[in-house]
Amino acid sequence: MRLKHIDRMRAIAVLFMVEVHTAAIIPPSGITVGHPAAFVAAAFGGMAAPMFITISGWGMYSSASRRSSEGHTASQWANWIVPRFALLCVCQIMVNVLLNVERGGRFEWHTPGVLTMLAISAVICPAIVRTSMGARTMLMLLFCASPLVLGANSGPEMGWFERVDSIGMEEWVGRLLWNGTYPVLPWFFYILLGTVLHDLRGDCRARERGIVLGIIATSATLALSVVEGVDWALTSGDAILTFFPASMPFLVVSGTMVALALRILEGEEESGGEPLMGDSLSVLEPVGRLSLTVYVSHFAVLGAVALLMDGEPRLALVPAFLVTILHTLVWIPLAVMHERHIPWLSLEELLRRSQSSR
Q1: pTM to 2 decimals?
Q2: Fewer CB within 10 Å: N-end or C-end of the chain?
């Protein structure tokens, strides 16, 4: 049985991704880093990928755990892994082509991204389900600390277009593993966080204690920012929290916020009750069930917009804001209509059919 709060979390995560990508393609004119609008956009952007990857890890781990308990054979595991890996890799290439740099976009066709990282996670997931929660927790902490070990290898001085490009296989592997947009080190932290949150479903007190510790750590990063006189959060550059590359404080703070959001949305559902706000948020659930389809499809829209906007002056703040919000929210009714009229036409359904036919 699908959990409503998980589908809602997926929906919010992918809608955050739509928002931040739209804001990147249609940035308003005259907005500096310190502008409140820039701060709001950065807040959504900073939470989008951590939420998306964590809830994807939760879902893959849940599916793999169920299959492990059923005693799947090697061929049955291959039936689960191969279609997932292939579909996610193909979708990543589709995203890269749809929003290619040659047409005013942001990616090279071969850029490893978040879907590539999820594809690798699908391959590893059957091994993860065989490890104890204690071992996964320790591994999660190691991935959290990995930015300290990587240091300059994570490419803090790299610009965006250098980070999405690579010359030769050696550089491509580097982008995939430690200095790309969503490299395995340290972003696999969120996959492991999803598995731990899954296993703690029946122990909300343990999750709440972890959230409290995370909030204390978050407060410490704010205090450090004030004391040291440096920015608290920037996409990249000299700040306590950085996204490119992901810093250890960023992992801690965003991981805490993801766990908090999941706990709030859960309400009493895990104990047999209703999720937050009952059925009032059920309109989000179709988006959650079609999260991969929405994720890939919105790049088709943005690719067309990027081509039209290439070389054109930026929009003013209000029009850019309205376009961004409209493009984000329109996927909610589209997902509802999709499930009502063409539920068979989605990437999720393609994955289900490919697994059942093998």
Answers
A1: 0.95
A2: N
